[in-house]
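Quick question, first post here. What does this chain look like in 3D?
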Amino acid sequence: MSQILVKNLLFTYEGASAPVFENVSFSIDTRWKLGFIGRNGKGKTTFLKLLMRQYPFQGSIEASVFFDYFPYFVSKEDEKSTAEELISKWKPETEDWQVMREMPDLSLDPELLYRPFVTLSFGERTKLMLAVLFSGENEFLLIDEPTNHLDSSAREIVKTYLSGKKGFILVSHDRDLLDACTDHVLVLNRETIEVQAGNFSSWWENKQRADSFAEAENEKHRKEIRRLKQAADRASRWADKNENTKIGFDPVKEHDRSSSTRAYIGAKTKKMESRVKTYEERMDRSIEEKKGLLKDIEETADLKITPLRYYKERLIGCRDLSLRYKDAARPVFTHLSFELMQGDRIFISGANGCGKSSLIRAVLSKCANPPKGMKTENLDFELEGDLSVGGNLAVSYISQDTSGLRGTLRDYAERCGLDYSLFLTTLRQLDFDRAVFDGRMEEYSEGQKKKVLAAASLLTPAHLYIWDEPMNYIDVFTRMQIEKVILAYQPTMLLVEHDVRFREEIATKVIGL
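> Answer (accepted):
Ran it through. Tokens below.
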């Protein structure tokens, strides 16, 4: 057993207005299966890179183990090499047999080591990198979002594999994965960092209790402060009024007073002023105790979406549909039948490559008014069977591809016909940092890009919302926030998404390809 000790860590990106970490101290055990939780932009990946000594920092990080990081970097030139050749670059001290030892647990054939890396599917690449990662010894492993773009079956394989390992930090926004694979959590709260035993669900339950207690204590302090302020105001008014009676009196109307009464009134006034000071001191103490109670509460704004009512109950009809790419030897899928009715939220499920995104493209190609930027001419696939989409259907679309996001937010809002102020407001509700509003979108993180697409879709009134892997890279708090708005407004939706919890919360039907 050994410890990783972080002491007084201070790190700020050059040109940034505020530090990412400031005087941060905590310790973790190298045997733990540690889930790393926090909002987009809080510094999870940055911290992993600090452990790898990729950035200079102040303070200290003490560890007696080596660190290794997933995913490994793969250049365009690397893609031409075989995985066996890349292993010597990623992990020079590792032998092929050590990687092969891990491969069966990830449902990988050793033959993959000898194929060009570019020919491997995304799931095969991910699982192969994990096999290499866990082939070493005396290492603490840093795993950064391993399930993005993986289909459900590949996620299950990775989940089962990681649940049998230990000695790692896992950055993920997938609640199901965090619950299955972790026994401790490292949490980047709003203003603090905490380490806690348990998985995501146990931490979230504890956090909700702590937040409720903090809100109750905060309300108690507010009431106490109001009571003390009222009492101090009353005592202050009485003291001022009493002080004014010290000099001058009417001997006919106030026959019980004399000049010697002045000293008595002065003493009484002084006593009341002392009481006012006591009230103010108690009020200051209560205000000080109130500070910080709500600093870590995760408050998510209630989002809005504007679903339109279509004049027909059926929006999409699909019967005995087959889709084949031109020059392909076989169809991607065949004999698909389903109906999407008003109020349905249909999830398209299946392995990578089974045609989920292709089906979405086919539906969009049938729309009379396709979403802006969606090309429907010169399609590279052919359809057989019947696919009908309602006429004049207004569609709001989130693509899984963010590469088209370029320029400023203002430019993007104009291209999409969005109210710019409302667009920025929605981004702020999604916990988007104001500091990056004026930056260019190509410099955004993947999580920030996904939030741009989500905000635009939420602001677009539509009969049908078509979302293709919308939750990739988006933090867990925003996922729950989006679940809430969907359940509140009940839009009609067609989705591809591999987050099991997200699907369980909002799906009304699931289509398996």
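The chain has a mean pLDDT of 87.
Residues 200-243 form the longest helix (44 residues).
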